[in-house]
TrEMBL record:
Domain spans labelled HTH gntR-type: 2-69
Domain of life of the native organism: Bacteria
Keyword Transcription regulation in annotation: yes
Protein name: GntR family transcriptional regulator
Signal peptide: none
GO molecular-function term, one example from the UniProt record: DNA-binding transcription factor activity
Pfam families attached to this UniProt entry: FCD (PF07729), GntR (PF00392)
SMART domains: FCD, HTH_GNTR
Organism in which the protein naturally occurs: Streptomyces monashensis
Keyword field contains Zinc: no
Gene3D superfamilies named among the record's database cross-references: GntR ligand-binding domain-like, Winged helix-like DNA-binding domain superfamily/Winged helix DNA-binding domain
Keywords: DNA-binding, Transcription, Transcription regulation
Length: 228
């Protein structure tokens, strides 16, 4: 059985984002293969993908290492998201399916309910799923991929403080979905831009405050059920 490289890539990326692999630390194929229970071949392919995405760099005499982004690079990511997410929402208003709308509306209902209860951890997960679904609804694989990479990188570089008003934030999500459902691309774009501006204010660089140390992996990489 050959484990797909994209599964290994996802596992390594998730652990980089979670801080399991520290910035600047070496990523040796042998150690990673042992950690994730795979051969070195999918690890090698995964590292190439992660290098193309900007999570990994290859250094002379050291090999593959976790990248060490600068504050300027991190700031650029937030600016890129501010430009691309409104575009994605405008495209979603033109191209979304009923299935996308059903998922988005369900997430908004859950988010508004959790916001009223003050369940912050649930809200972060639901917010991620909301923006992922909205990106998929734009029906542009390249734009969806770019938005997904931006979210991964921003989650890696930034800690997000609790929004001052989660109820208001989820009301904004609901308004975006209403605009998408009506096919109003310009309103979806404007609402998403405004929502992004407010959300960006809650981001704080992780590595500007001395870092958070190495954390334990959030999940065991169970690949036993994967097939060719």
């Amino acid at each position: 059985m050959r484990i797909p490289a994209h599964s290994v890539c996802t596992a390594i990326r998730d652990d980089i984002v979670a801080g399991v692999h520290e910035r600047g630390s070496r990523l040796t194929e042998e150690v990673l293969a042992r950690r994730y229970g795979v051969s070195r071949v999918p690890v090698r392919e995964a590292l190439r993908t992660l290098e193309a995405e900007g999570f990994v760099v290859t250094r002379r005499h050291a090999g593959a290492c976790v990248a060490e982004p600068t504050e300027r690079e991190a700031a650029d990511l937030l600016e890129m998201r501010m430009l691309l997410e409104p575009l994605g929402a405008a495209r979603a208003a033109q191209r979304r399916t009923e299935a996308h709308l059903k998922v988005l509306r369900g997430l908004v209902r859950l988010g508004q309910e959790r916001a009223r209860r003050g369940s912050s951890e649930d809200l972060r997960s639901l917010g991620g799923w909301f923006h992922e679904t909205l990106a998929q609804a734009c029906a542009s694989p390249s734009l969806t991929s770019m938005l997904t990479q931006l979210r991964h990188k921003i989650a890696w570089m930034y800690a997000v403080e609790a929004l001052p008003s989660p109820v208001e934030s989820w009301a904004e999500h609901g308004a975006i979905v209403d605009a998408v459902a009506r096919g109003d691309g310009e309103r979806a774009r404007a609402l998403t831009a405004l929502h992004g501006e407010r959300a960006t204010a809650a981001h704080r660089l992780r590595f500007s405050v001395g870092g958070e140390g190495v954390r334990t992996s959030q999940h065991a990489v169970n690949m036993s059920g994967l097939r060719h």
